[in-house]
Amino acid sequence: ALVGVLAGSVLITRHLALRGRAEIALEAYFRDLKTVSALVGGQPARLLVDTGGGATLVTPDFAARLGCKPQGIDIGRRMNGDAVSCQRCPAQLLQAGSFGTSISPLAVFDVNALLPGELPRLDGVIALDAFAGRVVRIDWAAGRIEVAAETADPPLAVRWATGDSGRFLSAFARVDGPPGGLWF
Questions:
Q1: Are 49 and 131 in contact (CB under 8 A)?
Q2: Phi, then psi, of 114 in degrees rounded to 5
Q3: How far apart are CA 105 and CA 133, in angstroms?
Q4: Most buried residue, 24, 50, 119, 160, by most Cβ within 10 Å?
């Protein structure tokens, strides 16, 4: 399980010691992929959980349901290095389980275009930026994300990457190895 304060103070902890926590249930999607049921801008949404993603996003169809006319351009990178171009909607409230936050801006991108056509359609992706400034524990095996404001565990060094435009957020943890530390 991974626990950490995303953005601001750099802290990743190894064991659960969360207080005042909110919980989000993870749902099976395909193979090891998980989704969450959420409300985005008051509209029900099925969001893919992307622990390597830097931007929470909705599909163009979902953005239209929100009454958003996407604008601007953000460029991010997939884990294979491919560039991804998305647009933006103004801030939207996101509620998943007992966790709530404002996503500002909300990215607009057709994540379904990257997935096999036979998979159930998604409304978007919840990524690390949804948890910026909070302590997070992701327990994939138990099927939950826990979010809190504080932890008592000792810290682990982390580097943050914000993508080409400075808007995305990815966490890299140091792993000791020869000839020195590596960042994953």
A1: no
A2: -90, -10
A3: 16
A4: 24
Residues 6+ away with beta carbon under 8 Å from 105: 72, 88, 89, 90, 91, 167
Which residues of the chain, if any, have pLDDT below 70?
Answer: 1-20, 149-157, 178-180
Give the pLDDT of residue 3: 41
Look at residue 7 in the predicted model and tell me its pLDDT: 39
Alpha carbon distance 38, 36 (integer Å): 6
Kindly list the distances between the CA atom of residue 59 and the CA atoms of 48, 78, 85, 161, 168, in Å, as whole numbers in the listed order.
11, 17, 13, 24, 17
Q: For residue 83, what are its two tokens?
A: 């560039």
Residue 181: is it exposed, middle or buried by C-beta count within 10 angstroms (0-12/13-18/19+)? Answer: exposed
CB atoms inside a 10 Å sphere around CB 58:
32
64 within 8 A of 123, measured Cβ to Cβ: no
